[in-house]
Amino acid sequence: MNPRIGDITDDYCTRCHRMTNHSVAAMVGEHVASVSCRTCGFQHDYRGGKAPARSSKTKPSAFDQVLAGIVGEMPKSAAEPKPRRKR
Length: 87
Ligand SMILES: [Zn+2]
Prior knowledge:
This protein is of the alpha+beta class. The protein has a domain at 1-49: SH3 type barrels (Roll). 18% of the residues lie in helices and 31% in strands. It contains two helices and four strands. Strands 1-2-3-4 form a four-stranded antiparallel β-sheet, with no helix packed on it. A hairpin with a 4-residue loop joins strand 1 (8-13) and strand 2 (18-28). The N and C termini lie far apart (84 Å). The structure holds zinc ion (ZN). Zinc ion (ZN) binds at residues 13, 15-16, 20, 37, 39-40, 42.
């Protein structure tokens, strides 16, 4: 069944940077030309319902950066249990 204007379809929102529900805003022939994000209201060209491929040079996430900082700065002796002193 062909989509019609006002139908809800999934697409990648370039403002939300995620897949969200979109309303079909414009059609060219039988193809969806433009959609409107139902989360933020941003209208953009229809991307075929696919998220763009991520580039290979992705930055490490903030969590990974913080984790690397913590692990890198932790002294080795603190990670090992201290030997008990004999009386
Ligand atoms: Zn959006």
